[in-house]
Every structure is written in C-alpha cells, then in structure tokens.
Amino acid sequence: MFRLNLKIALRNLWKNKGYTAINIGGLAIALSAFIMVVMYVGFETTFDHHIPNHNRIYLVGRSLPEGKTNYTPASLAPSMKAAFPEIENVGRSKKTGFEFAFSTDEGRIYGKNVLSVDYEMAKMFHLRPDGGLKKPAAEGFDLYVPQEFADVLFPRKNLTYPRLVTLGPRNAGQSANIQGIINYRTDHSNLKFDAMVISNDVAANQDPNALNYQTYIEVKAGADVAQLEHKIDGLFKKEMIKNGMSAGDKMISGRSVIFLDPLDNLHLKPVAGNNTNYKIVLALGILGLLVLVIACINFTNLTIAQTNRRAKEVGVKKVLGAYRMNLIFQFLIEILMQCLLALVIGLALSELLLPYFNGLFETSLSLWKGNGALFWQLPGILIVITLISGVYPALVLSGFRPADVLKGNLQTSYKTLWLRNALLVIQFSVAIVFIAGLLIVSTQLKYMKTEDTGFKPAQVVSIQNTVWFKRDNFEQLKAKVNGIPGVNAFTVATIVPDGSKAQKNNYSFEGKEQGLDIIHVDFDYFETLHLKLKEGRFFSKRFNTDTLNSIVLNESAVAAYGMSNPVGKTIRGCDMDYRIVGVVRDVKAQGFETAVEPTVYAIKNPCGNLSEKSMLMVNIDQAKMAAVLASLKTNWKDWNQLDGDDFRYEFLDELYGRLFKKQEQLQSVFYGAAVLTIFIAVLGLFAFSAFSTNSRRKEIAVRKILGATDVQVLRLLNSFFIWVVLTANLIGWPIAYIVATRWLDTFAYRIDVPLLPFLLAGLISMVLTVLTVSIQAEKAVKANPVDALKYE
Question: With a threshold of 0.85, does the pTM exceed it?
Fold first, then answer.
C-alpha cells in the first residue's frame, strides 16, 4: 500500500510540474533564508559561551551623572576580592591607547588592539595558549598572538616559541618575546585583541586610581547578584571618599554608581552602550520566522488550489474502503516529500548565499563547521513545516464526500474560503509592512548621509600612529607637512570624529557643575575639519593666552549651562579658570543615534587623567590628493622617526561612514524581507487566483455568451483581489507606522515618519495584484465558452 501511495504521489507531482516547482521553490527560498537567520541568531546570542561559567561572570561598570561607563579604577579589583567572599575570582584588562608595530626579518604587522590582562582574568576567560596557560614571572609578562597574526610575522610554518620581535620602529631598540599562539575566537567573544599581554598584575606600577581598567568578577553559584552589586557600590564610594572625593560630589552622591553587567549581555544589550546589535538580531529573527510562516501559508494555498484535481481520486478511494486517516497520512507523506526536497534545496542555496551573507554582517558562518546544533534542529524544522503546511490541505482533501465528488459537486471546498482569504490578507499585510519599512529605513539612512554633521570629513586624512606625540616634535613635523603643495591644514588632537568617545571632566560656571567632553586640540583643528563658528573666534597663535587658559565651547555646552553671551566669560575645571573665546556649532561626531555631548575644546591640558594629543589629521586639496599622499609616504620615516617605519592612513569620511554600518545592515534586512515577502505573496496570489478562476470558468463562459467583454471579465476577476489587498494595506499601514516610529525614536536626529512610503507600498501591492491576477485570468477570458459548457 505504501508503494502504491508513493507512486500516486510521484505521478501527481510530476503531472503538475508547474505547481510542484512553485511549491517547492518558494518553500526552499524561505528555508534558505530561515537557515541563515537561525545560524546568525545562534552565533550572536552565544558570545563567550565557550567559557564554562559564562553565566556567572559580570563586568563591573559605573553610572556617571551624564551616562554610563565600563571603566573602573584598578584599585577596586583587589578590594572587592578581599571584602566579598561570594566573589570567586576577579580579573582586569586594559587596552592600549595606540597601535603596536610587530616586526621580524620576515614581516611586519600592526596590532590595532593590544589587550593587557592579568593572570586571574586569563583563567576566568579560559584563555589557553599553546602549551597551556602559565603564570608569568613576578614582575614580567607573557606576550601571545593569534595564529592569523603569527602567519604574517612568520611566513614559515612549524616554528618554535618563544620568538623575538621588534616593537615599534626598528631603530627604537624595543623588543619582546612572543611566547606562543593563543587560540581564541575573538570574533565570537567580547574580548577583542590582535595581541595579548598576560601579567600577574596588569596595574603594577600604575596609578591605582586611574579610571581606565575593565574589571570582571566571577561570582559563586547561588550568590545574590543584586545584593552584591549594592555592597560593591558602597565599597567604591568609601574608596573614592578615602582618596579625597567629597561625599557630596555628584559623581557618587544620591544614587547607585556601580552596576554589574552580565557577560551574556555585553554583545547585544550592554548597560554602558547601545543595543543596535540586539535590534539587528531581533529584526532578522522576526524576518526569518515571518518568511517561513508565510511560505508555509503559501504552500497551503497552492496545495488547496489543486484540490479539484485530486477530488475524484479521494472519492474512488473512499468508495473502495479507504478511511479518512489513511488519506490524511497519504497526503502528509506527499507534503513531507516536497518539504524534504525543499529543505535540501534550501541548504544548497544557503551554502551559495553564505559568502554574501557573511560579507554583509561581517561574520564567518559555515554550514559545516561549528554548527552541530543546526543539524539537530533541521529534522525538527522539517516536521514543523510539514505539519504547518500539510495538516490543513490533508484535512480538506480527505474530507470530500464520495457521492458529491463523483457527481462533480465540489462546493464543499468553499467552506474554507474565508480562511484562505485571511491567509492571503496576512501575506500581503506583512509584505506591505516590509516594503514601507524598507523605504523608511532608506529615507533615514539618506538623511544621515546628507544632513549637516557640523564638520566636513571629506579631503581629511587621519594618519595612524603608534606613539604619543610631544609638542616640540609635532611643531617640527607640522612645518614640514604644511610645506607640501596641496596641504590645506594639519593638526593634532586627542580623538578623531569617527564615533570615538571623548573623556569627561567636570567644569563649573556660576555655581553650576556640569560634566563636559574634553577634546584637547591644536591650532588649525577647527580649520582642518571645517567646523562652523557660531560666535567669538577660534584659537590663533596671535593670542598668547590661547595656549594657557582659552577654551571654545560647543552649542550644547552653552545650552547645558544656560549661558547668554558666553564669549569672554569664565568656567572652572581641572583646578584652573578657563576663558571662553568662542562657540562652535555642534558636531555629530558620534553619529545620529546619540545626542551631541556638551563639549569643551582646549589647547592646554592640565588634567592629569586625560589622554595626550596623538591623533594626526591633514586636510588635502582634492586635486592634489595623490601627490600629497605620495610625498608623505616617501618622507614619513625621516620626518617622524618615532612613529614607525610605515606611513599609514585612513580617510576620515570612510571612518565616519562606518557609524552607518549597522543601519545599512538593517536596510539590507528590510530589502531582503521585502523581496521575499512580495515574492511569496505573489505566489500565494497566483495560487488563489488560479483556484478562483478555475472555479468560475462556467460563470465566465455564460457572461461572455451574454455579451460581456474581456475587459469587463478581467475587472470582475480583479475586483475581489483588489479588495483583499486594500484590506491588507489598511492592516499593514498602522503596523508599519508603529514599528517605524519606535525605530526612529532610537535616533537623536531623525526624520518625521513620511507618508510617501505607505502610498508607494500600497501602489506596488496594487500593481502586482492586478498584473498577477490578469495574467492568470487571461487564459479563462480567452478560452472558448463552448469548452466550459459542453458537458451541461
């Protein structure tokens, strides 16, 4: 019996090759998208899960009056370990503020992110160098690099370690031993590094109160984390008061300062950071699920559209004694075969599309490596889609009554017409939401790329450095660089406006204290970046006081203090008085998601806890860009011997453009969602219109005999589907508006929700509906009426 049913199933599938191809193809495409989404969501939600106790590790952070930070003083770690027995382990890490050049006789590579950690943290994060983790000497350190790093430095294979490398410029005489390879997937961890330094005490011989360390704790199983957070907060405040801070200082008074951020949250939803990664994962997850459900709905509609062709088969089998359960099982087996084939094709499509997907989301996903869970999930996916897609058609097909079927009366199939109408409305509603969403995301992205940011990154080159600059060295270098024909301006500052966060310091004006971002700059900084002056003046060498106590505020700082006519007034910070000489318009240096911070620009840096000026920027005439860069490359080693052996640079507009990367990914998500949902909705419409047209062939024939024109018949067949799509628009528009408004609310600078995307979504859905239905109905309209009526 099984062989007979299998033969019947295969013959039916082959007989209806067109419908079968549409059925399987639509489901395969949806499954391909769903498989890639499942892989990506699994990857993004399992960061650091290779650590056995990842759910008991927390990052210690601080709440500031104007925000939150993950940086704490070095002294906090040993104090916590000694005070609280529920803490099992404490570790600290510190990033370098500049790049390291690693050189051998065989190659050179720059470590953009050199991470220093203490031995306890290396144990906590299960950092396992080749040969095992060893405790460094008391005052020493061990240097490790990833395999990719070593392959550039040491092209020869099968090397033994330790290996001696030069650090920085070759003529600086600095060297260290690389102790070995550290095999660690930094792309799947919150610890990012190109090279790692492990020492017993990462803060040895450093200022214990410096607030530039990341502190991690591993709590004991069953510990009350909320209570521990409260106790650490009290300990931190006591230490700050002991170190000279007033108990009434707004940095610690009147609120909880310390928070514990779970390691599992750091990648997607960090307390001190944004949740853009989470939004991308959530959008992709919803997309994948919706596409799969809609594909199953479409599969159902396509199957139901063919019920008339299987009705007599069902009637004969029932007359011969077949039970309904037997028929249900038979049809489910048929649908299982189609779903299985769709799954195989979907896997093949995923393999073909993964390189593009990995490039878009900057991942290295693979179907065959590191995805063992996927192959346990695939059978479950197959069973679920078979049941979703097959139960309803199997019940309909097996429910025909033999007497009615063999007489040619198939009106029983119309009992479920309302459900198919609802499914079609749902399909188009989702498609409309994604079309409108794509257009709104594209509009916001265009706004971000064209709106005035307060500075002009075009023609500005950021020179990558490996050392700190001393002022006398910079003045000599500046004279040489400015002497190159085509150089408009050259300057140095503590940060580049590429999304980097400036350090903060408290400043007071007329008794009001306010935390301000502090950017230490040099002459020509504002001219290099084309910042716009609102009032007063910029720094100038004609004024000797500019290097002593002059500052420039931005508009947000002036507004924060409630100043009127700020030029000439005085604010106090870093134990000295500053005189305001100018006000600059706000600069969206951190993009459009974060409001511009109140900022002070100064040449002098009396604040001991702040970074030195080391970020070089040169504004170059566009017509002479190539010649200037060639000249800098030729002379750099001689002009700036402290800065390494290579001249390396990045264009500032490209650096700033990276701030839009996540939104560009979201745009791609909506683009893919819109294309897939439209495609699947049109397939569903094709199936439904085919069913509707076939069931009305005799009606159409009668109308034509009575004088109806082809246009009138086409209008008749289209009218129902136009109402369906109108209903879908009325449902989809409010949903799209709510989702778009919530998404736009995450931006500090945003567009208003426009009307045009909704109108375009409606127009696109209408045009596709009319075209699809008209193409399908044309056969019935052109058919000879006699063929439809000759059996009457």
Answer: no
